[in-house]
Structure of GTP cyclohydrolase 1:
Amino acid sequence: MENDKYDHEEEFLGYKKIDQYDDAKITSVATHYKDILGKLGENPEREGLLKTPERVAKALQYLTHGYDIDPSEILRSAMFKEDYSQMVVVKDIEVYSMCEHHMLPFFGKAHIAYIPNGHIVGLSKIPRVVDAFARRLQVQERLTNEIRDCIQDTLQPAGVAVVMECRHLCMAMRGVQKQNSVTTTSAFTGGFLSNDKTRAEFLRLITANLH
Ligand SMILES: Nc1nc2c(ncn2[C@@H]2O[C@H](COP(=O)(O)OP(=O)(O)OP(=O)(O)O)[C@@H](O)[C@H]2O)c(=O)[nH]1
Ligand SMILES: [Zn+2]
């Protein structure tokens, strides 16, 4: 019975379970990757590579499963009326995404805050929203804005702040080959935009070592 509830909840939120692969898609993507291995000068029939096209296809489906998720629905599923109007900060959320230019990973941290306006949201839903947008082909700037807009439009708080710090492998293992550069992006609404003190408090909280 517990399982039934779990399945229903997954379906409701539009989550795709990790083991729920789309067989037709996997077969088609794998066929292309077998061809690509040959074009790269490899022998796709050698033992170590026999299952590689299918593995890559499954990995790619996982790494882009955010397309199947409705991020607003995630928030709507756990909004609670609450008389709390101080900033809520969830910091150091790990992010793994892939740049849409090279399909190479970029990864780092997201720091998110909102100022409740009658409703709070289940804390775990904020990292879930981050993942729903991150598990797509992205640029860091759009990812940052999409997270902000989703929280603002769905929860309608008095303000949202998103800061992301990421390393881009397309800048490290190829191209310009800078190993230590970190890209920071930010997006704000409401009180975080209009009130310098509110924004400064958020920035202080995400840089403070409180634990
Ligand atoms: N603004 C932004 N750029 C990104 C992001 N991820 C990758 N890029 C950049 O996308 C750009 C694509 O530029 P192009 O000149 O078309 O591609 P390229 O010839 O492979 O460029 P190089 O990486 O400089 O070798 C590069 O400058 C990447 O660093 C991102 O999240 N945001
Ligand atoms: Zn890139």
Observations:
- The pocket of guanosine-5'-triphosphate (ligand 1) is lined by residues 99, 101, 139-141, 168, 170-171, 175-176 (CB under 6 Å).
- Strands lie at 79-81, 88-99, 105-115, 119-121, 137-138, 159-168, 183-188.
- The first helix runs from residue 2 to 13.
- Confidence is low (pLDDT under 50) at residues 1-8.
